[in-house]
Amino acid sequence: MMRAVLLAALLALPAAAQDFSAGSEAAEWGLQGERKARFAARVVDILCQLAGDCPPDCGAGTRQLGLLRSADGVLVLPLKNAQPLFSGAVADLAPFCGQMVEVDGLLVGDPAMTPAPVYQVQRIRPAKGAWAPANRFTADWAARNPEAAALPGPWFRKDPRILAEIARGGYLGLGPEADRAFIAAERGR
Question: How many C-beta atoms lie closer than 10 Å to residue 43's C-beta?
Fold first, then answer.
């Protein structure tokens, strides 16, 4: 699987360097290697595209989605939406599974160092539709986790999946004992 992703990225390298900045209204973030990019694409399930594992409806929001760019057939990896938090773009793309859309955002990655840049979707629109901001993650998360609204802190401090993972593997992912040793060592500094 990883070989397929690497192969797709390497084959896409010459096409990924094209200029898609015309007409882009994306807000720049000042990231190294960032380029404005506005293009038409089909929303696809990445695992389906690369390995043929194709559940209905692109996995109903449980799978990483991609953008199969119309101009050159390159599979673009949209790993972020327009929100300042790093939550991904699945919530914004899932309603368009299998459909043609136009997206506007930033391709990020220095072409000399990154075989395939990642994409930050800032806005999206269906064919002939109106632009909408790509910022659905927190509203979708709140709707799925209404019990967390009363808890203090940002969403990731109260997400049931994250809390379960911390309970299982500790904050460092090495288990609660490793956490205790690390915290004791830090307090001793």
Answer: 24
